[in-house]
């Protein structure tokens, strides 16, 4: 089994419009030194993969209501994740991150501001535009260019 130093976890529900942006990014992201996982609404089901790889970097991407413009991208600190009460639909993301930090050197949570999370399979253009920006930042590991919420 190949061990990956970098793992991307895309979270989201592709049936709820912009909420699927994390999954869409994960499905399309392919880099040699990355393992990209589309975890849908159950990232906790993929913890064994993270534990086996013990990556240096774990990046989690999800749509997050941050009161910003649709498509805006932010790094969300663990404290903010807990305060925002972000969930995977079955458990708070803060629990997942607390569990995984024992197996990962660094965890980054990237939030993308959705415009619409009603039942729909279409992503708004301004949110879809963030896909290209995040993909470029991931490929080049330019996380310092992302503002922190």
Task: Please describe what this structure looks like.
With 149 residues, this protein is of the alpha/beta class. The chain has one domain (6-145): Rossmann fold (3-Layer(aba) Sandwich), CATH 3.40.50. It is 31% helix and 20% strand. The chain has helices at 21-28, 47-53, 78-84, 93-100, 125-140; strands at residues 6-11, 34-40, 57-63, 73-75, 106-112. The protein has a 5-stranded mixed beta sheet with strand order 2-1-3-5-4. Strand 1, helix 1 and strand 2 (34-40) form a beta-alpha-beta unit. The longest helix has 16 residues, at 125-140. The protein is globular, with a radius of gyration of 14 Å. It starts with 5 loop residues before the first strand and ends in a 9-residue tail after the last helix. The model has no long low-confidence stretch (mean pLDDT 92).
